[in-house]
Amino acid sequence: MSEPIDQQSEETAPQPSRRIVLALGAAAASTVVTIRPALAQTAGSVLNCEIPVPAPQAAGSYIAQDGSLVAPGTAGAVPPLSRPLTGEEVKVMLRGGPTPAGIDAQSAQAYANYIRRLQAGMSGFTCYASLQMPR
Amino acid sequence: MAGLSYIADDESLVRKVELDGLTALFHVPSGMTHIVAPPAPQILEALAGRPADLKELVRRLSRNFDVDGAESALAARLDELEAAGLVSRP
Amino acid sequence: MRHSHALQVGPVAFRLGSEWRQPIEALKQLYAGYPAPDGPCDFTVRLEAETPWRRWLRPAVAIRGDYTLPDAVPMALAHGLLAAEMGMNLQMALGQKRYLLLHASSVERDGKALLMTGASGSGKSTLSAILGEQGWRFMGDEFALLDMDDGRLHPFPRAVSLKNQAVLVLEEIVGGDRFGPVLRNTPKGTIRHLRPNEEAVARMREPARPVLILFPQYGRGLQAAVRPVGQAEIFVRLTQASTNYVALGEPGYGALCRLVTGTPARAIDYSSTEAALTLIDGLWGEFA
Description:
Strand order of the largest sheet of chain B: 5-1-7
Number of strands of chain B: 7
Structural class of chain B: alpha+beta
Number of helices of chain A: 5
Distance between the termini of chain B: 16 Å
Number of strands of chain A: 6
Distance between the termini of chain A: 52 Å
Radius of gyration of chain A: 25 Å
Structural class of chain A: alpha+beta
Largest sheet of chain B: 3 strands, antiparallel
Order of helices and strands of chain B: EEEEHEHEHE
Strand order of the largest sheet of chain A: 3-6
Order of helices and strands of chain A: HEEHEEEEHHH
Largest interface: A-C, 27 and 27 residues
Largest sheet of chain A: 2 strands, antiparallel
Helix content of chain B: 25-40%
Shape of chain A: elongated
Oligomer: heterotrimer
Number of domains of chain B: 1
Number of helices of chain B: 3
């Protein structure tokens, strides 16, 4: 092709042969990773913590499969844990590892979801935040 | 009627460093750091300081890139960038 | 407070106070030979009774100080030394603003530093302690301090925290007087602290330029291997390991980008100390 035609093409319509293929990522792929504050890997070095399930503020509530708090005896919900979980136990559980003794897999799912929903101000939130589970 | 419009911050508000084919971005207004893969940096460049809807974005990108049939993929990327706070709807 | 001690570790000065004598005595012994700070302290750690009656009755040591974390569970008095160490880590994790903190071990040779980072159990602490006895200068096993202006690493030679198997390995190499007491049934298992050697202490104010980053991975049956690591992956791993990266903002970002783009990195798999040392020697020869 001659120079003038290229010149003209550049200004009006792009030329397919000069364009770079742009990697687009699949619909469900993730192309953005956001760096979050991490107390993570030093958690074992700085914090010996526990997460009560549920928090004392909600003592007596049962926990639904999705982690929300419900009235005691609600169908499908699991009872409060008799002792708080240690930071280590929570870390393992959230990673899909073995559940602490006395907790079956189904209940563990509910407890794990409860922990994931913890908000600032609720007992156990700092402990959970310090474990920094990747999203 | 044009679709939803998107805009990204001006380039002066974003620091960029290339890392082996991916891009590290520091977004000054939020203080957040993101690692992004193509086409994210290209989308951000196309939207920097100038709003565009999806069709207009495709048009801008197609100046330098082959983006035929990419609308739905680009829409997914825009959602991600919006969730990360790098793109907003003016 | 009734009992206290002041300690200089690299560029950071700590004041530690305690309601009980025992942890402070253990700390003084573990850090024998360390200089006293020559100015005001940067951080304070206080070991306090969780409640007044827990000072004597099944003593419960709460870790307090300039910075503190809610939800922390108090520790037994027998683990008071560990509480003091965790207290210092906590002050650094939450309060350090002058240096970018990397959760990594570091050793130095000829003014150049090797940085090792990875999850618990990767072996970075143990390897740094061993290298420190084999002609390298030990700079730290828990935190590496990155100067955001000039990119050099500053030593932070706290006592090395050795767990389980690693305790035995180092007991074979190092004389008994450098070890702290054996602490059993701690939240992190059995721990013994090891004081860095005299050279590490004497040179604790000397920074070094990082020239190699390693991600060691220990595994019982692992075939010794060296693998490349992408820069983006290193960047993310190091931010995951930095407690103050986000708080430092743009200067932290710039410093970490310069470290990552300017320093070669490799992942190494190993199943024995010897294998690791061989891999490290080879890579050092290649990159240092």
